[in-house]
UniProtKB/TrEMBL annotation:
It comes from Streptomyces violaceus. This is AAA+ ATPase domain-containing protein. Residues 186-304 form the AAA+ ATPase domain. Signal peptide: none annotated. Pfam families: nSTAND3 (PF20720). InterPro entries: AAA+_ATPase, nSTAND3, P-loop_NTPase. It comes from the Bacteria.
């Protein structure tokens, strides 16, 4: 049976009306939401007037449904229709149907006038065109079928699946859905931007859900766009989600060296390709504006393909339905719902700070949804949205739980549970707060769904992150304002990476995001302790360790190859702010140059650090030697397309070489590409990159050959036809709103 739980009672009535209209072949009247006097639906066929009552009682027992049916008897007597239907989503048995029929037998020809969940399900099967009009239902059904048929994909995408299934019942198809779908149809790419809390992620999830329902494999990108390149499959319909792709607070967190090019290459590849591959990205509006100033290709591509959708404001109809759906699907006490129903909804819908995230918070388990004064508390959160986490943090959490929220702001966006456990226990120990592994697990249970989100990565390892960027901002504010906690975090850091995260959040450094001045001021006051902690933790394990195959050992956990490159870069940036000392800089730079002499490290991280070193106050002391060893490393290890890209960038940016005059290097590159083309086939991302390098060398015949290979690898088109089911909200009257929210008081 289909999952009717994704529908609200209003949405179910719309579905029932459409199904009965198709069944009887005449228009079915629907009435404004609210007190209906026993009529939800009405139609006239062959001179017989029939009315119907809909009861969406999925979360109730049959005894509750039967009690509700008994209350309808007097209403039906007053109306005295020619015929009467009683419709429910509850899966009722034959005997239960007979009992309801006995109540209304005077207006029913038989028990078949009582429609239960399975009867509705059968009607949907008989009228598939009606199901397509009710997108939440068919998308949910299609997703479940997809997961059942592809258990391997379901396991890999479990975290995404859970988030979509949690969001779908409360989702309202707003006026932004149509344009988003059209962008995906026309360009296969949609970049959703907008202010915090407006619903970017939820919109993206619904787009993903719709495509899953028609057979697209979902791929969630979490670290960098290379994950999408690696996962690309020529013969599979795929849809990629890259949420907050420019960072949660500032784009300076994101886009390692050359990632903007890889991302631009992927956007261009998908935008000019067939529709079996889709890409959805989300970001905050101000971060996108900021990034465009640094990454010109993003702006150039959007000018050409126009794939950016900016979410701005909701219509009043959208706002009302969002609020209603959240309240209807929540556990808000009946007395609190009455406060909303008796006019309180007006103050919420008309509030300047209204947005879906605040609505979700004020109807969720972190908020007091049981005590009198619910409307006042809701309005207080709207009046001061920056405080939405403060009350729950201060009044509902223990010291151990609070420290978990705070320490998470110093860790990677998604962190392994064992890493979080170690960092949390170290901080608790420093502050004298009792914490055990079992109490840590209980803290996770308390915080999940409010302050944190728990998921699994592609290796099925459990990872933890803040529930959304506003939690991270709140945690950083608390850390900056509590010197004792900040000093404890610095002193108890289990990895250099924690200190780096704090510093980068404080410094910011992008055009729009100036950083966190309060945090920077607090760190500066304790700079001696901070730099001492950096030195002490410089060789600590990375918090972003990777799984690797080691001969004779097997799969083991290792530090990323770019750990030293990245940490020296952070050291240089901290020195620029506070001058950590010439000897400390000498030690770390010489270690870095020693690694480059041995041709080790991560070239992307090394390139970034080389750039930082070139503008550092000590550049005169080290740049001659640094340039020599870096140039030798890049030029001596040209085994992959990525090696070539780093080498070409270095020659162009730092050596000022005109590549069209470098025939020896061009000849070497041409031989490399000849081998690549005749081999088992280079990666699609390498092909695009190699074509651009061939053009830079002036190797136009080679560029044409690469073009031919790219064309041969074009994905097959699919036969996906876009449904017309997502209807968009518009104007609503005050009487409609009164009736809609009046249902909550029944």
């Amino acid at each position: 049976m289909r999952d009717f739980s994704v529908l609200s009672d209003v949405e179910f009535e719309e579905l029932a009306g459409d199904l009965l209209g198709a069944e009887v072949g005449v228009p079915v009247e629907r009435f404004a939401a609210g007190a209906d006097g026993g009529i939800d639906l009405r139609w006239n066929a062959s001179g017989i007037t029939t009315i119907a009552q809909c009861k969406h009682y999925l979360r109730s027992s049959f005894s509750q449904l039967y009690a509700a049916a008994e209350k309808e008897v007097e209403k039906v007597k007053r109306l005295n229709p020619d015929a009467y239907h009683f419709i429910t989503t509850l899966d009722i048995s034959v005997s239960q149907k007979e009992r309801i029929y006995a109540l209304f037998s005077e207006w029913m020809s038989g028990p078949e006038y009582v429609l239960g969940g399975r009867d509705i399900d059968a009607l949907i099967t008989r009228h598939p065109d009606i199901e397509r009009r009710h997108a939440k239902l068919w998308v949910s059904t299609g997703m479940q079928l997809f997961w059942n048929l592809h258990s391997d994909i379901a396991n890999r995408a479990e975290a995404l699946r859970q988030r979509i299934e949690k969001s779908m019942p409360r989702y309202v198809v707003s006026s932004s859905y149509g344009p988003a779908r059209r962008l995906l149809d026309e360009h296969n790419v949609c970049l959703i931007s907008g202010p915090p809390g407006i619903g970017k992620t939820t919109l993206a999830q619904m787009l993903i859900a719709e495509h899953i329902s028609v057979g697209y494999e979902p791929i969630e990108v979490s670290a960098d766009i290379n994950e999408a390149w690696v996962a690309l499959s020529r013969d599979t319909s795929q849809i990629f989600l890259y949420d907050d792709f420019l960072g949660q607070i500032t784009f300076s967190e994101r886009l390692a060296k050359n990632e903007d090019k890889r991302l631009s290459d992927l956007i261009e590849k998908l935008s000019s390709g067939h529709s079996s591959k889709k890409l959805i990205l989300t970001t905050r509006e101000y971060i996108l504006r900021d990034a465009r100033l640094s990454y010109e290709r993003l702006g150039e591509l959007d000018s050409r393909y126009q794939f950016v959708l900016e979410l701005k404001a909701y219509s009043k109809a959208d706002k009302a339905q969002i609020l209603y759906n959240h309240l209807w699907h929540s556990d808000v006490a009946a007395s609190c719902l009455r406060e909303i129903a008796k006019g309180g909804y007006k103050e919420i819908l008309n509030h300047r700070s209204y947005n879906p995230r605040l609505v979700e918070y004020c109807t969720g388990k972190a908020f007091d949804t049981q005590s009198p004064g619910y409307l006042s508390r809701f309005k207080e959160s709207l009046d001061h949205p920056e405080r939405i986490w403060r009350v729950a943090f201060e009044e509902h959490l223990t010291d151990e739980q609070r420290l978990l929220v705070l320490v998470l702001s110093t860790l990677p966006r998604r962190v392994a549970i064992d890493v979080l456990l170690e960092a949390h226990q170290s901080l608790c120990c420093n502050l004298g707060v009792l914490s055990t592994e079992s109490s840590f697990r209980r803290a996770l249970e308390v915080l999940e769904g409010t302050f944190i989100a728990i998921s699994r990565n592609r290796d099925s390892d459990t990872t933890i992150q803040h529930a959304n960027p506003s939690v991270t901002e709140f945690a950083l504010f608390r850390v900056a304002s509590d010197r004792k906690v900040l000093e404890a975090i610095v002193a108890s850091a289990v990895s250099f990476d924690q200190l780096a995260e704090l510093f980068l959040y404080a410094r910011g450094g992008s055009f729009i995001y100036g950083g966190n001045p309060e945090l920077m001021t607090a760190l500066k006051k304790m700079k001696e302790k901070f730099t001492a902690a950096m030195s002490a933790s410089f060789d600590s394990p990375s918090l972003q360790q990777e799984k690797a195959w080691v001969p004779g050992v097997g799969i083991t956990i290792v530090d990323p190859t770019g750990k030293l490159d990245e940490r020296v870069g952070i050291y240089l940036q901290v020195d620029k702010e506070w001058h950590v000392g010439d000897e400390a800089i000498r030690v770390v730079v010489e270690r870095l140059l020693g690694q480059w002499r041995n041709h080790k490290g991560d070239k992307a991280e090394a390139s970034s650090t080389f750039t930082i070193l070139s503008s550092h106050r000590s550049a005169d002391h080290y740049m001659g030697e640094a340039h020599e060893v870096f140039h030798d490393w890049l030029g001596s290890t040209l085994d992959t397309a990525e090696d070539w890209r780093h080498y070409i960038d270095h020659l162009s940016e730092y050596d000022g070489i005109n590549l069209q005059n470098e025939w020896d290097i061009a000849d070497r590159f041409e031989r490399f590409m000849e081998d690549e083309i005749v081999s088992s086939g280079p990666h699609p991302s390498d092909l695009d990159d190699m074509k651009s390098i061939a053009d830079e060398f002036g190797l136009y015949e080679l560029s044409e050959r690469i073009d031919e290979v790219i064309a041969a690898e074009a994905e097959p088109d699919d036969d996906y036809e876009r449904p017309d089911g997502f209807r968009e909200g518009g104007y609503v009257t005050e009487s409609y709103l009164e009736g809609l929210f009046g249902r909550l008081a029944e």
